[in-house]
TrEMBL record:
This is DUF2007 domain-containing protein. Residues 70-92 are annotated as: Disordered. InterPro entries: DUF2007. Coiled coil: none annotated. Residues 1-64 form the DUF2007 domain. Pfam families: DUF2007. It comes from Cognatilysobacter bugurensis. Residues 83-92 have a biased composition (Low complexity).
Amino acid sequence: MRVVYEAANVIDAHLVRHALEDAGLPVFLRGEALVGGMGELPLFGVVAVCVPEAALPAAREILQTLPITAPPPAPAPARDDAMPLPLHGKPA
């Protein structure tokens, strides 16, 4: 098995896993059981999505199409019609 994706968390790993399984690829999550033992400390690189060597090219191709590998969208611009907040209890 080869690591095709290092997940940020278990939910992230399962989203990738389901996308790969929907394409018919066998998937194994490495380190999923370790997450419960890490307590309050943030650990990265604990959960990895693995596929067989033969499925690696197809898995990488699928990962390129997933929105989780894309940068987050830009924040929406501020609205001009938003009501201003009162300043010291008086309308602005």
